[in-house]
Specification:
About 3% of the residues have low confidence. By secondary structure, the protein is mainly β. The chain starts with 5 loop residues before the first strand and ends in a 6-residue tail after the last strand. The chain has a single domain, classed as YVTN repeat-like/Quinoprotein amine dehydrogenase (Methylamine Dehydrogenase, Chain H).
């Protein structure tokens, strides 16, 4: 598929298309590809000018990508891979830590060490910085309903806000003892999983109440590189630095099973296909597909 390791992976809003990003042999060039994995065909590929990508996120019509070195993003059209205009700044000294996009393409939220940036597609200037209670934002997640935004802070806190206006805080919890590195919603937004530099994974209800803690011992002392949640809420999965994916029951935190592949690139992300029956991850030169249909049954 790619001639280099898959750096990032994303899925469209209908979970029918998979997008991959990989470095090329050309300086400051990243290759993006779009796949219909059910038909096993490549729909398009394109190159973008970038030394590195922070993440990918797909809306209904656009595939957004952000850069780690400054707080802005760009997109290509899902239809044909053609590039659009840059969105946002960059602001002097601002870097991005995470981002999410509106499924309807009305906005993009970017997390930065200074707080939140709201960017509007088609508007290069005029975006505003919104502070999340004056803390640095280290991770973001958007609920399936497209309205609820989870904001992870460098102080270990998690805030729930309205995606249309993240300055309206619904609730806040003092969750972790270190920066929140990853957030993901599951079970139609009723479950939120968080990972942190404190070495733990924590599960939360939609009300912000902590349900359980998955300890560093259960993670084997490995760092969490990405998270995924069962759409039905039965499990949470963590891709770890030892090239394994561990699945834990969401009701009690017990280890269900683990998958391992030396070609796995845990930092590339995980996406769910076929209503949560297939897990896709980035590999050394291709997308790795895992049959997880029996999990939680």
């Amino acid at each position: 598929m790619h001639a280099a390791p898959v750096q990032k992976i994303a899925v469209d809003s209908k979970a029918k298309l998979v997008f991959t990003a990989a470095r090329t042999g050309v300086k400051d060039a990243i290759e993006l590809r779009c796949w219909d994995l059910k038909k096993k065909v490549e729909l398009w590929k394109t190159r973008i000018r970038a030394a590195d990508l922070h993440d990918l996120s797909a809306s209904k019509e656009k595939l957004y990508f952000s850069y780690p070195e400054f707080a802005a993003c760009n997109y290509v059209r899902i239809e044909d891979g053609k590039a659009g205009l840059p969105i946002g700044g960059p602001e002097r000294g601002a870097t991005s830590t995470s981002f999410v996009c509106d499924p309807k393409d009305d906005w993009v939220w970017i997390g930065t060490p200074k707080g939140l940036l709201r960017l509007t597609p088609g508007v290069i200037k005029g975006w505003k910085t919104r502070s999340a209670n004056d803390i640095g934002v280290t991770s973001l997640a958007l609920a399936p309903n497209g309205n609820d935004l989870a904001i992870g802070g460098e102080d270990g806190s998690i805030q729930w806000g309205h995606a249309g206006n993240a300055s309206v805080k619904k609730k806040r919890t003092e969750g972790h003892e270190g920066p929140v590195t990853h957030l993901v919603f599951g079970h139609k937004g009723k479950l939120l999983a968080s990972a942190s530099d404190d070495g733990t994974i924590r599960l939360w209800s939609s009300s912000g109440k902590k349900r359980l803690v998955i300890s560093a011992d259960l993670l084997g002392g490995n760092k969490v590189e990405s998270l995924a949640c069962d759409p039905k809420g039965a499990w949470v999965a963590a891709a770890l630095t030892d090239k394994s994916i561990r699945f834990f029951e969401s009701k009690n935190g017990q280890l269900l099973t683990q998958l391992r592949d030396d070609a796995l690139l845990p930092g590339s992300g995980m996406v769910l296909l076929e209503k949560g029956k297939v897990l896709a991850t980035g590999g050394e030169e291709s997308v790795l597909l895992w049959d997880i249909s029996e999990l939680g049954n």
